[in-house]
Amino acid sequence: MTSMSDRSLNIALVSMPWMSTRFPSIQLATLASVFEERGHKTETIELSLDYAAMIGPSIYDRLCNGGGFIEELIFAEQYYGKEHRPFFEESRNKVLPIGLFEPEVEQSLIAALNPLTERYLDLCADAADWSKYDAIGFSLTISQTTASAAMAKRIRQKVGKDVRIIIGGSSCAGEMGIANLHAFPEFDAAVHCEVEMVADAMLAAIPSGDFSEIDGISFRNQDGRVIEGKWELEGIARPPAENLNFDSYFSRLDVLGLRDQIDPWLPFESSRGCWYGEKQQCTFCGLHEIMKYRHSPGEETLARLDSLEKRYNVSSFFSVDLIMPQKYYKEFLPELAESSRDWNLFYEIKANVRRYQVELLAAAGVNWVQPGIESLSTSHLKLMKKGVRAIQNIQLLKWCSEMGIHVTWNIIIGMPNETNQMFQDMLSIIPNLFHLQPPSGAANFSLHRFSPFFEDADTFGIVKEGADPRYNAIHPLDASLVDRLAYRYEFTDQSAKNVDPTLPEQLSALIAQWQAAHRRGAELAVSMDKGEVIVKDTRHSEQAIYYRLRPEEWSILTELQEARFTKDVLSDLEDLLQSRSDAEAKLKLWAEIGLICDLDERTLSLVRHDNATQMPSETTNAQAPHPYLVEVS
């Protein structure tokens, strides 16, 4: 394909902190593929790694998980300048603590980073001849806004206005892209949509800087006035890019001496959009990418990953898909499972899978998933419009535990229209789950732009009150502009008075107990002894409790590896015990001692089976690609 531009352009694509050090930027690689396909020389520059090398990879990676505000604050001080120092000294108190260190240590750390960050930006500005580029693109995806603005400011000081500086990514969706142009005069244009949709027209317009005829792009004209473009476009871009080049990431690791300190995962994309969100968007979900779903055929994705493994000698792959294609249970995973490939993969999945599908994930090397569990109360899940029941979430945790699959998940609390019963549902069941992988915590609900809660706030009893105050602690700007920049909003929930405030505290305390039990290796596992079935229970103490079951009873529990309707289980027990009352008593006993979970008119065995492998308590700490879904306070 040939670009409409009259000449070949020289383009730089830059990724600033705070991308994880363990992942090359798929955003840059995808854009580079698009531009090079059209005949333009494109260089990707991963400057996140330089900052990690300067402050230390361990400190950098911990700050990457700071929640999105402290990361922006660190570079905001550099962008807005020394004249705002009193503002930022006060701001630190509003953004900290973030729970990584003791509050006093955090304060000292952030203060100590200030001169290092200034030095880092100066070095990056001097490291390249920025004047040789026709355009410089910044990816504003994960807490990268102020770092990109600070870098753009230094570039602008060196090269003047001759170079087009263009931004894109999730922080440019909707009016946020326009607000970025108003807030940061160094940016010339903001792309609101998938670049593939506007690539030809955008590339053709770069020499003149006039993007006025292009829907999907807002820009600054020659007079400095921001021209607001249309950001809701019809149509869709093509499926994910086929050729990804991560050479700049690996060469940078070598130059900085980080190769031995970082175990990389290669990001890849096999679909775009969300097939579930296309039907029904979760009420809290603010992912603006929920559009018509597209996916690459499984054989194409396999070929891409084979090529990446051969090129970089890395066999750990991180999918950035919002959700794994359903067809991959038939056309992708089986081939992986039957092949000799020894890969580790991450995918986001939906929790309402069947056991054979989880077995297939494990056999294919998908040993890390993010299923969007969010709650263990069915009424709570209905409020979220998750399309799953609590019993399905629990059985997925059990199956993943048995098959050695790590699960990234949390519980969201503080949502509009919560009830006491939703908390009581979880408080009653969680003590029986201490042998399964716990959530990362109970995350306070955050009102996200683009979510149904945000777009239809009145229906849910939500009163929007402007940007989360932490944005105002980052940007010394007019409050109305900060509101337009913000992704997270402050709000009043008119239903909040309905919930006993002690219940969220009880839930958080119980989750902490669950995490402690998991760290010490809590079990609910089965073994055989002279024909008897022995269930060992260390969920609540290192001192084990043992339950003995007759083989016939164990056969009933074995059939409950996947949840069954309770009425059918009672019928089977009645046939075994020859008494309806005895069957009901047996089921009640099993529920009381936590051998089974009885929810949603269904019954599930909680006992790990003898062919299971114990989940390790420590797993990768790499961040999931959409951290705003797993925010932990």
Question: If you had to describe this structure to a student in words, what would you say it looks like?
Answer:
With 633 residues, the protein is α/β, with parallel strands linked by helices. It is built from 25 helices and 25 strands. The strands form 7 sheets. The protein has a 7-stranded mixed sheet, sandwiched between helices. Strands 8-11-12-13-14 form a 5-stranded parallel sheet, covered by helices on one side. A 3-stranded antiparallel sheet has the order 17-19-18. The protein is globular, with a radius of gyration of 26 Å. The chain starts with 9 loop residues before the first strand and ends in a 28-residue tail after the last strand. The C terminus is likely disordered.
Task: Describe this structure in a few short sentences.
The chain has 633 residues and is α/β, with parallel strands linked by helices.
- Report the structural category: alpha/beta
The whole-number mean of residue pLDDT values reads 91
Please report the number of helical segments.
Answer: 25
Estimate what percentage of residues fall within beta strands: 15-25%
SSE inventory with pairings:
Blueprint: E1 10-15, H1 26-37, E2 41-46, H2 48-55, H3 57-64, H4 69-80, H5 85-95, H6 103-126, E3 135-139, H7 145-159, E4 164-168, H8 175-183, E5 189-191, H9 199-205, E6 217-220, E7 226-227, H10 247-256, E8 266-268, E9 271-272, H11 275-279, E10 294-295, H12 298-312, E11 316-319, H13 328-331, H14 333-338, E12 344-348, H15 355-364, E13 368-370, H16 378-384, H17 390-403, E14 406-407, E15 411-413, H18 420-429, E16 442-444, E17 447-448, H19 452-455, E18 462-467, H20 469-474, H21 479-485, E19 488-493, H22 502-519, E20 524-529, E21 532-537, E22 545-549, H23 551-558, E23 564-565, H24 566-577, H25 580-592, E24 596-599, E25 602-605
Parallel strand pairs: 1-2, 1-3, 3-4, 4-5, 8-11, 11-12, 12-13, 13-14, 15-16
Antiparallel strand pairs: 5-6, 6-7, 9-10, 17-19, 18-19, 20-21, 21-22, 23-25, 24-25
